[in-house]
Amino acid sequence: FKGGDTCEYLLSSGRFLGEKVWQPHSCMMHKYKNSEAKNCLIDKHVVFIGDSRIRQLFYSFIKLINPQVKEEGIKHGNIPFEDKSASIKVDFLWYPEVNGSMRQRIKSWTEGPVAKPHIIVVGAATWSIKIHNGSNEALAQYKTNITSIAPLLEKLAISSDVYWVLQDPVYEDILSESRKMITNEKIDAYNDAAVRILNSSSRNSKAKVKVFSVSKLIAQETIMKSADGLHLPESSRDTNAMILMNVYCNKIMKPIDGSCCQPQPPLTLIQKIAFCFFTLSIVGYLIISLIHRNNYRKNKSCTDLESGEEKKPAISTPNVSTLEMLLHCFCKLGLIMTYFYLCDRANLFMKENKFYTHSSFFIPIVYILVLGVFYTENTKETKVLNREQTDEWKGWMQLVILIYHISGASTFLPVYMHIRVLVAAYLFQTGYGHFSYFWIKGDFGVYRVCQVLFRLNFLVVVLCIVMDRPYQFYYFVPLVTVWFMIIYATLAVWPQIVQKKANGNCLWHFGLLLKLICLLTCIYFLSYSQGAFEKIFSFWPLSKCFELNGNVYEWWFRWKLDRYVVFHGMMFAFIYLALQKRQMISEGKGDPLFSNRVSNVLLFISIVSFFTYSIWASSCKNKTECNELHPSVSVVQILAFILIRNIPGYVRSVYSSFFAWFGKISLELFICQYHIWLAADTKGILVLIPGYPMFNVLVSTFIFVCVAHEISQITNDLAQIVVPKDNSTLLKRLLCIAGFFSGLHFFSAMQDQSRH
């Protein structure tokens, strides 16, 4: 940890990811859109002073505000630009040399009633080298002139952002004869003089001129592509303009994926209360542990001095009390949440942008698939979608999704469409699993509902408090929570139809189908009526849960994207359990699911369907159009996979324990990745060990998986305490939980009021 301001890193260091993506050292750079640039620079005056290289930077900068601008105008003269809609003024002032004229212009802003620009970008040297044929006298005069200008720039830097752009290297081999005297050796001498003189008299950190030296690094990589050996290619100067925009605008706009130049957010009231709670839990657990340790020592075997015989302790080691277990869980959770906060809220660890390459996605996929095959074991039961198989399915899907996120593969549309099927498959399992439980068990009690809701939501609620994020931010958990409640309501509402009742009278099957048809109708109506959907979820308190950035559009989009797949999961469970009850399928060890002929036909159709979907997904050209079709067709590949995995008896009888282990903690892995594996709320990558990307991924992954596993155990332990089986005790716990959320809402309202 070097400390310091990330702005310094942004202005002075970095590297290229690929050919065009610039990665600043230690932080993430946001790619500003035109609307964002206008919002940041509204009512601002920006001035660029210098030569033709600064003019290039000026044009790239104003194109961030208005991409339609053309590079026209007087080459050796001033160029004004104004965006009247946002009251933005950007001027280029032609001063190719650091001389008295430039000094006079800068001095005019420090004296009198003239309004000071908000941003000043200055830089010049190559003209001095060219006009004076690279003489030492010209360098000495440059030093004298910059010495006279430096105090004025430092004075302006108190109230404005002032940047001195160091000179980029040139490509000497293709310079014209009139520019041959501009050598990299001379440029380095001029840059050294500027760096040494600027800020030498300033003791106030606020009055410092920011040295824009990163342009040199960018030019070293790209100047070979220059048309004349002097001016940078367009992509390089666009990168410089984007860096300037990040330096100034990140602290104003606070983009999630722009960690450079952003100060650490202050602790909110709720975060302070959470910190106190976890601290008290840790202290409380330590006190109880010390008391138990002392009691154990007192009761320990000791030798009787008179008889010389060893005495046995009369009291055995006491069982762990509920309070101690509770404090133990919160003690561990507090330490884990501290790590979460340090990783993604404190400016302690570095963060970097993602950069997609095919190898960064497909090589890890092949690696984990090979690992999974090596850990093959026999299943305890050979039913379709048995527990080991569903855990395995969740596990390998979760690992693929994690690799997808860290590699930034969402930019590659075929991969994106296949990952959408994996997310849909999770929801398919939600429909299948919960429908099967309620249909077979007929257990619609409060205990079951509370257990499921607690296990799904505990970690997310804690993260909402500690990381100061809305519930909808962790979109997958709200999605599975709402679908669980929909499944429960569909089956629990009168008349309650379960397998035991339906076995007595076949008409009940039609009653259940009627319920499912009503559910499908409601889903269809809401998916095509955004207004009705938003009205339902805009009512308090639902709005507090499902709003993101002040509206529920994101929630509607996420829900709509996989709207039918849970219904498909319920229908599959209903048909499968009906066939199983009538003994129309064979689930013995090594036996095919159907007769050989039917099994072979279904297997062939499944394989063709599986690859047909993949071909369609790989040929997608437009994400919006493919997303429209996805809800209806994703079930094709899901069902094809289930049949391929279950029709052959020998395939159904084995599973990968490697994938199944990850499947048991898949929910925790999905949520934890937001903050301690990825960074900046999934927009970037956490860097614990800079300079060694592969080693960094190995270390951060090991910690991440251990933390997810530990949180899974904590959740299971707390579920036993918070959600007891006894109804009267459960009612008391529910009242306590209601009080907790009421208090949370009260403090949240206080927090919002103080922010406004």
Automatic annotation (TrEMBL):
Coiled coil: none annotated. GO terms for biological process: carbohydrate metabolic process. It is found in: Golgi apparatus membrane. It holds the Pfam family NXPE4_C. It catalyses: CMP-N-acetyl-beta-neuraminate + acetyl-CoA = CMP-N-acetyl-9-O-acetyl-beta-neuraminate + CoA; a ganglioside GD3 (d18:1(4E)) + acetyl-CoA = a ganglioside Ac-O-7-GD3(d18:1(4E)) + CoA; CMP-N-acetyl-beta-neuraminate + acetyl-CoA = CMP-N-acetyl-7-O-acetyl-beta-neuraminate + CoA. Signal peptide: none annotated. GO terms for molecular function: N-acetylneuraminate 9-O-acetyltransferase activity. Keywords: Acyltransferase, Glycoprotein, Golgi apparatus, Membrane, Transferase, Transmembrane, Transmembrane helix. It is a multi-pass membrane protein. Its main location: Golgi. One of its GO terms (cellular component) is Golgi membrane. Residues 253-734 form the Cas1p 10 TM acyl transferase domain. Its EC number is 2.3.1.45. Residues 22-72 form the NXPE C-terminal domain. The chain crosses the membrane at residues 269-291, 325-343, 355-375, 396-417, 452-468, 474-494, 506-526, 561-579, 600-617, 659-679, 685-709, 730-750. Belongs to the PC-esterase family. CASD1 subfamily. This is N-acetylneuraminate (7)9-O-acetyltransferase. It comes from Malurus elegans (Red-winged fairywren). The gene is Casd1.
